[in-house]
Design brief:
Two copies of one chain form a homodimer. Chain A contains twelve helices and 18 strands. At the A-B interface, α1, α2 and α3 of A face α1, α2 and α3 of B.
Chain lengths: ~400, ~400
């Protein structure tokens, strides 16, 4: 029988009562007869508490040391979950990331999974046990413990689901699924029953917090059906899977927004080849993601080059870019943090014209000024004033009739 | 240059300030140029807190699960120590028990070390690093994490010192060393500069808490010189090593006492062979240590058989022994917990008569009644009333002139 992989986040495991509630849910799924692998995050604020403890002793703790420290959070929650399941009368066993065969490279704090050896998991499942795996962690060839960085536990779950050919990977969180927009901003936002990997990836990359883009991408590559649902109720959630009725569903699927945006403009650089490369190479080397990039039309041989980064990366970005002004012959470098991105996403957009025009008109009608624009095949993103995010999201939700159910 | 192994207990690592103080001490030792391996226990009450957390979720948590849970305590303290040392400008790396090559059997909660693979430790030392090892833990052939039970971190330290052919294994604790008696009971108790493995083993087994007998025994087998000293001052501590001037030092070395004693008496059993075996086999199988055993002289073909166990084992002992009364044809089983053991220990005793007589007279002079007596080659133990422990220890300390310095 096909395996079911379930992942529970830290807020679903914040205390003994919640751990018991999750264990009851796991047990109920197990009672259906299906083999189950459960991936857990660290309880509640454990990870933050451990980082605080480390910073009391070392301003800038070593990444390898921090990884071993942080990995204990998931070890604790996986043993507690296994104990609780056993106490309820179910066969269960906890496995660390290493024991579950999660092999990674040695980039501490943001390790990538290079292989999964599922032999121990298979053996324990064959013995009739519920297997509880510590998420967010793996082990290098040198037997050093690594953590996977942001979205780590989701990634562990999807990687295990892929290697185990699981029927689905269920991601349990504190919301009911993927919404057409953030319900805290747009009360008429509607939960989607299903969405394609590509759409989910764009939404996640443009600020939808429900799942990390990295785990969505892995699911897409290996064709793992992912269900995002709440651990606090029985609602069916949202299925993320391969493309379905693309040509029929000629629509915008969702609206993402992101206020964690800082904009940097390099003013008055000579318009010659190689400028962008010499600007962005050092940022890439420093692991800073550059998002929207816009180069203004050349005026008298010089141009302005603007790009956005995460707000937390702004200081590092400026430290890296400022020394280059001489080399770039730039007049000035200016930055701003009172900006936000708002995006419309939908597979249907790529072969149907007019979405951009409708988006710009909807924003203009609400007096939302557009600072920069960037597009992909299935997405249009506008950079706007941070104060106008709610207005913009609501306007777009209405214009594209996202409160109406799918066909 | 010969390696130095240092072990720091939980009270020496109870908070950030103490961790820093220990790190400074480690760094000072390192500055002498000697390669250093540091073994750490879990911080303060971490282990108790983790057990409490487990018991909120499962009345009787599984031993394998509990082992993974408890092992996180030492992982946390070893990473914090390594970070602190790095922050102070020293090269340092933390290793889990598994990474340090501590291989054990699969008896969870009380695993025995079966081998130590020191290759990673050697590699890190060769790279000039201080190696900080999580004590109390190991790994099985199946890659399951085990804990070593009582005295576990001391045992890790001595095992590493043995395999690394370390010059000494320093056990840092909250007392200055090994005393002639418990200084809280006998204010004139004197710290010993040195003591033999055999004497320390007897003292530890008879209630001296400063080191666990298991680690002393391992040190004895591999000839590891052990120094017990305080982490809170610079006093030199006590050296535990092979026998020295045995024939000259014809003396009692120390007095141990133990109030964790319960006595069980099987009354009126027929005096025939095999009685003791059928009584003690089930206790051994249940891992209950039976200490003093006394069989009274046979009166009219029946005898009383008394033995002591740790107080915490009394209920389990009675549950195992009571069903045997029929088989043993015993008249009754009675137990008592208001007892204590007091022992004199000294290698010099074994070839010099008269120690027992002096001990009994000293106790009689203070009106201390002796309930049972047991001896080894270098020890005499009396079971007495728990109320009279202080009187007994003080009387013996005076009689054997333990406040006087060694030759």
């Amino acid at each position: 029988m096909e395996i079911l992989v379930q992942k529970y986040g830290g807020s679903s495991l914040a205390n003994a009562d919640r751990i018991r509630a999750v264990a009851r849910r796991v047990a109920a799924s197990r009672d259906s007869g299906r083999p189950i692998v459960v991936v857990v995050s660290a309880m509640g604020d454990t990870t933050d508490d451990l980082i605080e403890l480390a910073q009391q002793l070392a301003e800038d703790p070593d990444d390898r040391e921090l990884d071993l420290l942080l990995s204990t959070g998931e070890m604790i929650s996986c043993t507690l979950m296994a104990m609780t399941l056993r106490h309820m009368g179910h066969e269960a066993i906890s496995l660390t990331g290493a024991q579950a065969g999660i092999r990674t490279d040695s980039s501490h704090r943001r390790a990538r999974i290079v292989a999964v050896d599922p032999s121990r998991v298979h053996r324990e499942l064959a013995a009739g046990r519920i297997v509880v795996v510590a998420g967010f962690q793996g082990i290098t060839e040198e037997f050093d413990i690594t953590t996977l960085g942001r979205g780590g536990s989701d990634t562990t779950a999807v990687a295990l689901a892929a290697i185990l050919h699981a029927r689905t990977c269920e991601i349990y969180t504190d919301v009911d699924g993927v919404y057409t927009a953030d319900p805290r901003i747009e009360p008429r936002a509607r939960k989607l029953d299903e969405i394609s990997y590509e759409e989910m990836l764009e939404l996640a990359q443009q600020g939808a917090k429900v799942m990390h883009p990295r785990a969505v991408e892995l699911g897409s590559v290996y064709g793992v059906p992912i269900v995002v649902r709440s651990s606090f109720n029985e609602n069916p959630g949202t299925l993320i899977h391969g493309e379905t009725a693309m040509e029929i569903r000629n629509k915008v699927r969702g609206i993402a927004h992101d206020t964690d945006v800082a904009k940097v403009t390099v003013v008055g650089v000579p318009d010659r080849p190689g400028i962008a490369a010499s600007l962005f190479r050092p940022l890439a080397d420093a692991n800073i993601s550059v998002d929207v990039i816009v180069q203004n039309a050349s005026i008298q041989g010089t141009t302005d080059l603007s790009f956005t980064v995460a707000r937390s990366d702004l200081n590092r970005t400026l430290r890296l870019v400022q020394p280059l002004t001489g080399e770039l012959q730039a007049a000035d470098i200016v930055s701003s943090t009172d900006l936000a991105k708002v995006s419309i996403v939908g597979t249907g957009m790529q072969h149907a014209p007019g979405y951009a025009a409708r988006m710009f008109k909807a924003l203009a009608d609400r007096n939302v000024n557009i600072d920069m624009i960037t597009t992909s095949e299935i997405r249009i993103t506008c950079l706007i004033d941070a104060q106008q995010v709610s207005d913009a999201v609501q306007a777009l939700h209405e214009t594209f009739q996202l409160d109406k159910a799918d066909l």
